[in-house]
Amino acid sequence: xxxxxxxxxxxxxxxxxxxxxxxxxxxxxxxxxxxxxxxxxxxxxxxxxxxxxxxxxxxxxxxxxxxxxxxxxxxxxxxxxxxxxxxxxxxxxxxxxxxxxxxxxxxxxxxxxxxxxxxxxxxxxxxxxxxxxxxxxxxxxxxxxxxxxxxxxxxxxxxxxxxxxxxxxxxxxxxxxxxxxxxxxxxxxxxxxxxxxxxxxxxxxxxxxxxxxxxxxxxxxxxxxxxxxxxxxxxxxxxxxxxxxxxxxxxxxxxxxxxxxxxxxxxxxxxxxxxxxxxxxxxxxxxxxxxxxxxxxxxxxxxxxxxxxxxxxxxxxxxxxxxxxxxxxxxxxxxxxxxxxxxxxxxxxxxxxxx
Length: 355
Hints:
By secondary structure, the protein is α/β, with parallel strands linked by helices. Helix content is 38%, strand content 16%. It contains 13 helices and 13 strands. The chain is globular, with a radius of gyration of 19 Å.
């Protein structure tokens, strides 16, 4: 499948508009294209338990790929251990004007300014409710575009209450660069208010893992402040990171003409790994981290784990590598762990910081 994808399928797919190709990919997955049957693989990592949930393997699909929870089981059958649906908002919204998704092939990257286009929390929750799921399912929630930050907490809370019953964990997205002023919610008082309200309601309902997704474009002191707040409100973990607004060092010509949007893929690899290291060190390993950003190979995945990630996610690497990505990455990661003498994945988590 890997050679077929690289030589025939990907060139044809990459000849299409990026968002059109993505929509075709979702439809193909829904029809069973690339599916290998059982979500369980022959790759053994030992027991992987994170924030009370058991994962078949450490590699998940990052939010943004299956925004509406349409192909969760199909992604599981490709070898992913979990799928993060969304970003979902309380009210449905169309997102930003097209074109809004762009490939940067020379950089193995994407730029998107989709703007939380989704069917809305009620529709997605109903879809997930009917699903006989074959993997862990997280739901990533965000703020509606027409809601000011002053009313963001109420908007998040309404969305949280709708998806709570169908989510194995909930991720709070305050870091997309494509919703005006959203990233300001990462700051002190606003972040404390949001997390205090969500966690209080979470405890009332019977707590589920609540995670926070942060941006890569933060200073070390800003990251540390967020970690302190996350620990204060007993969050289950941090997802590091979202896309970057940086355009440093890109090789693709004409990138300036694309305009605003979040950059993902290989250029994000080191940036996100550095953020993971900062979180791990400052929390002294007490705060579980889902590492995401620039994972294309098993070596990339291991670097995130060694930096402190206890789970990992991919999106852009999956887009470039095709249907065999999850199995290839998991198989390679298991081999690296064995070669380096780790009996379990847990032994490798944060190993670079210990060294």
